[in-house]
What does this fold into?
Amino acid sequence: MTTAVKNGGQITWGPRVDLRDIPNLYAPQVVKPYTPPSPGIDNLGITSTDTFMVPGKGEFTVDFKGYVRVARSQPSTENWVDSEVYTNLIEMCMRGEAPGIGSIIVTLNPDILSTGMLRTPWTDMNCSQPEKACRMAVAAMFNLPQMGMTLFNKEPIELTIDHVQMIPPAGNPGKGQIYQILPLYDRANPEEKPAAYLTGLKFAMGNYITQAKIESISSRK
Amino acid sequence: MTTAVKNGGQITWGPRVDLRDIPNLYAPQVVKPYTPPSPGIDNLGITSTDTFMVPGKGEFTVDFKGYVRVARSQPSTENWVDSEVYTNLIEMCMRGEAPGIGSIIVTLNPDILSTGMLRTPWTDMNCSQPEKACRMAVAAMFNLPQMGMTLFNKEPIELTIDHVQMIPPAGNPGKGQIYQILPLYDRANPEEKPAAYLTGLKFAMGNYITQAKIESISSRK
It folds into this structure.
């Protein structure tokens, strides 16, 4: 018996996007609003403000800045209204700083495929030009080099963007759908109780960025 | 490299509760309010009202009734205020009916350990007798025998109960924290796009029930 949440050795939280023969899209790009796009890998800037609670240390809020690489599937139809697009977050690097903690570098957990989709909310299926809704289940690692610690989530961090008028939704604000707390675990003691909690997350998708910019963020010490 | 989300062959969404030497608790039981209890397996009734969207078929709401078996850890401290209790949902059977669909039987996905915790919200840590918050990440299977289909979730169904004055929180209402949609997949085509979506979930924990009652629910055809 299998529920195939494991796929190619990796746990998957949703459909895998076929990465063969899809172009890598860097800045500059022209995006047509209300138009299902050809498949591609979007290389985009991102900013995020995350709030963490560490038991015994208190709550702290960190501003992150970096990039994401998002693979998009072939849209299910050519019509904006009923087309669905599936996404995989295939790379991420965001950097932030917290007083008393030092650097925090957020990347993807390689053991889990972060997956998502864009679709028209059912209540808007009769609109001629609806705004779409975007959701993504993210498996992240929060590396704290000065603390000698890496935290990770076992339940997905659900990122959502509403009011999507074009794909990718560059410039749109988004939210982490966290009800009170999302447990984070210490990779050195992964079976123990949570080491910290994510208690809030707001982000904004940026525009297409260059390959050079991505390399400067990912290679920074 | 491992993030140990796999544990004993099973994916785990949180800490595993040690099931050795903990008693099976059936009706009747006396539960003391505001008191961290000894570890145990709570055998409880449950009712739930779930709303599903099936693309091309529409939205339908189903009332379920059944039982859960919840293993509780040793509380982290003896004080109600700061004690944390970890939980595993080790068995579930809920039955419902939907017009045009037939029976729906909800059980646990054996490939994933459904995990949860009870804790005092940080904002209430200075209260002398706070109400606790309960959360559980559930991996379910929805068997539709007349349709010849079983649906399952890859992202957890997050069930929450607030205002918990005793453990277990028998009689408390709870909610599935679903932002718009939670994708459900067809076990016959697990790597395909979602076959349906869970769009709403409200539940109520029942009281302790007898072993005979549990057996009558789980063995019913």
User: Anything to note?
Assistant: Residues 7-219 of chain B form one domain. Helices of chain B lie at 211-219.
